[in-house]
Amino acid sequence: MRRRKAKKIATLPDPRFNDVMVTKFVNNIMLQGKKGTAFTIFYEAIDKVATKTQEDGIEVWRRALENVTPAVEVRSRRVGGATFQIPTPIRDERKSSMAMKWLIGYSRKRNEKSMADKLANEIIAASKGEGAAFKKKEDTHRMAEANKAFSHFRF
Length: 155
Description:
Structural class: mainly alpha
Strand order of the largest sheet: 1-2
Strand content: 5-15%
Helix content: 55-70%
CATH superfamily: Ribosomal protein S7/S5
Number of domains: 1
CATH topology: Ribosomal Protein S7
Order of helices and strands: HHHEEHHH
CATH class: Mainly Alpha
Largest sheet: 2 strands, antiparallel
């Protein structure tokens, strides 16, 4: 056990939209400490989303994150020699973190030319309730629903 709780480091808002969630998203995009490149990718993707959908790009991104955010997840727990998948509600911080990671991870797996294109198309798909990241959320919820009978094992 820890002696005391770890301090939360405050995340600064991004320069263009003045939003902390954008900075957290960019931090997840970032590879090898290249934050400038990650910001460039994100801003290009938001601009492409805005031109393709004829809406405000940041609002489409927020809707996409909201659509991909899960409410429950399954966790493995050993009870009497058997392992059960137990549905558990998720903390708000973890919800948004999972949504961001799924959106970025599945956009990396897409087949478009640049990362900005991949991210833009995944954001558009997620905002409509389509795409791999949205499917991941649906699968997570379906798994939790299927294992609802074991929810009394929750601790």
